[in-house]
């Protein structure tokens, strides 16, 4: 059963078409909320109390959603985050850095 499930999964993945432009558009629909966790970790690592960081992240995420403004733009105007390297916080490369290795493993097991 597991072998069959694995083979079906491989067939599905091989038949997939990735539309990078649609993927980017879907990510942009969140106005940066996907990076909320990283933002919070960065704020705490830089010395902010967790509760204060949480309040900032929640407020800015809600404002971004309500007004359709990317969180990164809003955070650039926040005194508590104005000096942060926001580009690194909102860098999605960390989420895909292992994608090629994962796909290569799929090729190995087929």
List keywords for this structure.
8 helices, 68% helix, 110 residues
List the helices and strands and how they pair.
Blueprint: H1 2-14, H2 20-28, H3 36-45, H4 50-67, H5 71-76, H6 86-89, H7 93-96, H8 99-109
Helix pairs in contact: 3-4
Tell me what you see in this structure.
The protein is about 70% helix and about 0% strand. It has 8 helices and no strands. The model has no long low-confidence stretch (mean pLDDT about 90).
Task: Please summarize what this structure is.
The protein has 110 residues and is mostly helical.
Main sheet?
none
- Cα distance spanning the termini: 16 Å
* Structural category: mainly alpha
Succession of helices and strands: HHHHHHHH
Q: Give the DSSP E fraction (strand runs of 2 or more residues).
A: under 5%
- The number of E-state strands comes to 0
- The number of helices is 8
Unreliable residue runs: none
Overall geometry: elongated
Helix content percent band: 55-70%
């Amino acid at each position: 059963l597991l072998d069959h499930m694995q083979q079906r999964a491989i067939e599905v993945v091989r038949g997939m078409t990735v539309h990078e432009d649609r993927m980017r558009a879907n990510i942009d629909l969140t106005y940066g909320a996907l990076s909320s966790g990283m933002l919070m970790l960065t704020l705490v690592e830089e010395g902010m109390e967790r509760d204060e960081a949480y309040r900032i992240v929640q407020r800015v995420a809600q404002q971004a959603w309500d007004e359709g403004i990317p969180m990164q733009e809003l955070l650039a105007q926040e005194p508590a985050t104005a000096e942060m390297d926001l580009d690194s916080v909102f860098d999605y490369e960390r989420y895909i850095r292992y994608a090629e290795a994962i796909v290569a493993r799929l090729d190995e097991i087929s």
